[in-house]
Write a structure and sequence with these properties.
Shape: elongated
Largest sheet: 5 strands, mixed
Distance between the termini: 43 Å
Mean pLDDT: 86
Helix content: 55-70%
Radius of gyration: 32 Å
Strand content: 5-15%
Length: 605
């Protein structure tokens, strides 16, 4: 009777929240979550604005991302303490999308990426996403850091450079050409803010350095603009309010709108030409590539962040639920003006250090950002662009992992170093999508090459003692059931029998190489024994190569005996139509049986 198969269970959502509750959640834990959420919320406000501006959109869209996506991902995801929102890693993907398709195109691509992430989670692909080689991750993150830093140079120096494009080399050329327009006031405030944010942590005070940097930068900008500005109200130092404006059906203003995120249809928002995008198949097809890149990077970032948080908290995340949560957050956030979100390692680490116990800390963080938008929008508009650029310089430096980059260059094998530099160069000069694709492809090729070096086929010249003991019963197979007849002398047997040993897996990269040497057997050899006890796996290519070898040996009137083949590989061979044939092909559980069968075949000739 065929046993019933258990039905496939779909991944659960909100496993992070469930696990925190089941582990015992009390008032003390709630108090810790609230305190951690308040701290992370204050950190998220400046970062969300800065990262949105770096991606080429107005700062409120980064705040809306932290509010909507941050709360949804925390509640539905698979990690207890991850904090999600806009991250620096996405800048190199989002900026070109905004340049080509505008804000509307970016939000549509984000929703498509959210759908892809949900499907990855439902397909239980969470574990597979983690197998991205470290040189690839380090290469594209360091490249992203360089691109982010370069994009902030105009605001930090106060250059009149115009709109930067999506090509790194052209942007560098524009920046160099605009150096004569350097604004000393912008540069001074940028340097001042940068120094404050770098030195503030040494005081060990509970106020986050980014918040202090924004405050002192805003004070300095206000003093310059109102103390040194002329009567024409010309802004000597650009601020969020002087750079951005907003408009609703009932109101308008400069800076950040003091209203909560409201529902809007992304396809009604303007594209790069200022007109609403036509939502059709052509647009969806054009945005599919960027959406896949967003989804893959979001999956990698969120799962890497989950692994880091597990190490810090000694907990375990659910990778499939985390992907589903990330997908739901990115599906819903664009409907409220939010851009792409994923788990942020720096904010998550700070959340853990502040004592967070459950996803409620990230929910509190979203509430803090919401209150800041409603109550402090006018003050946030006074933050200078140079200060935000200084903050992003720090983010880029931390993201680059310069020490790990240099250490890898010095200590890693040559192949890994090449992959690292290629991914870094492609990210900077072209785009991250190409860098990740090429990097993973090269890493796979390097892995195959290393596996080819491990898998070897060699002929055993010194034949082992293989006389079958009398109490060793033959295999339960009719053609081999008779006791072996010792009609040949041992020397004659060994000349007519060739023994080869195969070590390592047989797959498409090594199968042909490993089996080709067997085609050139000596003319005196009548039977070839393959010791395959050390072959753990075979793929379809290896099975085809083995079938070809069997056919060639049959034409040469050479029999083949497979020794030590694992049972699961025997099942594979049978499924492929490879069957035993007396005098031509068989398989045995060990070498003594293989030699006994080979000698019997010789005796029967």
């Amino acid at each position: 009777m065929t046993p019933k198969r258990s039905p496939m269970r779909l991944p659960r959502i909100a496993t992070g929240l469930r696990s925190a509750w089941h582990s015992g959640y009390g008032l003390t834990d709630l108090r810790q979550d609230i305190l951690a959420g308040l701290t992370i919320g204050t950190v998220a406000v400046p970062l969300s604005m800065a990262l949105a501006i770096a991606a080429g959109v107005a700062p409120q869209h980064g705040l809306y991302t932290a509010i909507v996506a941050g709360a949804i991902i925390a509640i539905t995801g698979g990690s207890r303490v991850n904090v999600s929102g806009p991250t620096a890693a996405f800048v190199v993907i989002l900026f070109p999308i905004v340049q080509q398709y505008g804000l509307g195109g970016l939000l549509i691509a984000t929703m498509m990426a959210g759908a892809i992430l949900v499907m990855l989670g439902l397909a239980r692909m969470g574990r597979l996403i983690q197998f991205v080689p470290y040189p690839v991750v380090l290469g594209f993150t360091a490249g992203i850091a360089v691109v982010i830093a370069v994009l902030q140079v105009p605001d930090f120096l106060g250059l009149s450079v115009g709109q930067l494009g999506e090509h790194f080399v052209e942007n560098v050329g524009q920046i160099l050409a605009a150096l004569p327009t350097l604004n000393p006031f912008e540069l001074s405030i940028g340097v001042f803010s940068l120094v404050v944010m770098l030195l503030w942590p040494r005081l060990h005070l509970p106020i986050p350095a980014p918040l202090v940097g924004l405050f002192v930068g805003a004070l300095a900008a206000y003093a310059v603009n109102h103390g040194l500005g002329d009567n024409s109200h010309e802004m000597l130092v650009q601020t969020i309010a002087s750079r951005f404006s907003w408009e609703t059906l009932n109101d308008s203003g400069n800076g950040i709108p003091p209203i909560a995120p409201a529902f809007l249809a992304p396809w009604h928002l303007p594209g790069a030409d200022g007109y609403p995008l036509p939502l059709d198949f052509t647009l969806i097809r054009a945005l599919l590539g960027p959406a896949i890149a967003i989804a893959m990077l979001g999956a990698i970032e969120s799962l890497l962040c989950s692994v880091v948080s597990d190490g810090l908290t000694r907990t375990r995340h659910d990778p499939d639920a985390e992907l589903i949560g990330q997908g739901l957050g990115n599906l819903v956030a664009p409907l409220f003006g939010g851009i792409t979100a994923t788990a942020a390692i720096a904010r998550t680490a700070t959340n853990i250090r502040c004592g967070a116990r459950s996803p409620l800390a990230a929910v509190v963080h979203s509430a803090v950002v919401l209150l800041a938008v409603i109550a402090l929008a006018e003050l946030l508009g006074k933050v200078p662009m140079a200060t935000l650029a200084a903050l992003l310089f720090i983010v880029a430096w931390n993201m680059s992992e310069a020490r790990h980059f240099v250490h890898t260059l010095r200590s890693a094998p040559g192949g890994d170093v090449a992959i690292l530099l290629i991914c870094f160069g492609l990210t900077v000069l072209f785009n991250m999508v190409l860098a990740v694709a090429v990097g993973i492809g090269l890493a796979a090729a390097l892995f195959i090459r290393r596996m080819m070096q491990l898998t070897q086929t060699r002929q055993i010249v010194d034949m082992p003692e293989t006389d079958t003991p009398e109490n060793d019963a033959p295999e339960n197979d009719a053609p081999e059931s008779d006791p072996p007849r010792q009609t040949h002398a041992r020397g004659e047997d060994t000349r007519a029998i060739a023994l080869y040993d195969i070590d390592g897996p047989l797959f498409f990269g090594v199968a042909e190489k490993a089996l080709t040497s067997l085609r050139l057997v000596d003319d005196k050899v009548q039977i070839v024994i393959l010791d395959m006890a050390d072959v753990p796996s075979m793929d379809g290519t290896a099975i085809v190569a083995l079938q070809s070898l069997i056919d060639d040996m049959r034409h040469q009137h050479v029999a083949l005996v497979l020794s030590g083949l694992p049972s699961h590989l025997i099942v594979k061979l049978r499924r492929a139509g490879i069957r035993k044939r007396t005098g031509e092909l068989t398989w045995c559980r060990n070498l003594p049986r293989a030699f006994a069968v080979a000698r019997r075949w010789l005796a029967d000739e």
